[in-house]
Amino acid sequence: MNTNTISTKIEPLRQELLHHSLYSKIQTIEDLHVFLTHHVYAVWDFMSLLKGLQIHLTSVSIPWTASPNPELRYLINEIVVAEESDLALDGSRQSHFEMYLDAMKECGATTQPVLDFLEQVASTKNVFVAIKNANLPDEVKDFLNFSFTVIETGQPHKIASAFTFGREDLIPNMFTEIVKSFQKNFPETNVSKLIYYFERHIELDADEHGPMAMKMIDYLCGDDIKKWQEVAQVAQESLEKRIGLWNAIERLVIPELV
The pTM is what? Predict the structure, then answer.
């Protein structure tokens, strides 16, 4: 088994996501706000998948010692630099999560619910408790719970699978569809920061991060058949959880679907 085999196996789920009816349903500014205030949780938990990989694949302890694989060390650190301290539209340095919050504010979407959620995460010191107590659709909670359950395994190949197949390999095409929808439906709305965020991800993930993440999985799995099987399972579940997230947002955008 290899990354190409897994990509072929999950292609039907990728196609379902790429052609999801949600994109065409975001037609008003209110619809856009609904989308942003729920998708932001996926933007946030992505950073925890990333940092989970950095913890396991590099040395972050004191005193420092070199982690075993310099190639893996390089791959994850390169991705971290862009995701955690990229150039924002105004030339400042921001994480992609901070960029997303700024984009939400620019187009009038509230950031308070996700900020309140992060306060709960900090105060409870337990992300699963915070997720359980959050006022979010079940599918959004399932999406978050899945990410952090994978992170809690402490197994880099599983975390890398959720990170790669559930995010980096999926995002360029999926975000392209979202950008097309936004540009068509909001020509008069100030969404420049939002478009920049999505286009930056499309550029980075397609040209750099996606291929690097695939290479990372090759290194982590090697010839271990069991690891490849687990990577395939996590990849499939990651896409299923994303479909659930999109379904939940679509129901909120079109209430009659409830």
Answer: 0.92
From the first residue on, what is the mean pLDDT of each consecutive set of 10 residues in the chain (258 residues)? 92 92 90 95 95 93 90 89 90 94 94 97 97 97 98 96 85 76 74 86 70 89 96 97 96 71
Please check whether residue 205 is in contact with residue 104, taking contact to mean a CB–CB distance below 8 angstroms: no
Q: What is the pLDDT of residues 185-215, one digit of tens each?
A: 777 667 888 888 888 877 775 666 778 888 8
Task: Measure the CA–CA gap between 135 and 113, rounded to whole angstroms.
Answer: 9
Torsion angle defined by CA atoms of residues 125, 127, 132 and 138, in that order, rounded to the nearest 10 degrees: 170
Q: Residue 87's beta-bridge partner residues?
A: 93
Number of Cα atoms under 13 Å in the Cβ half of residue 32: 24
- Extract the runs of DSSP E, i.e. beta strands, from 70-178: 86-87, 93-94
Sign of CA dihedral 151, 139, 192, 23: positive
Please state, in angstroms and as integers, the Cα–Cα distance from residue 136 to each residue in 34, 88, 207, following that order: 12, 29, 34
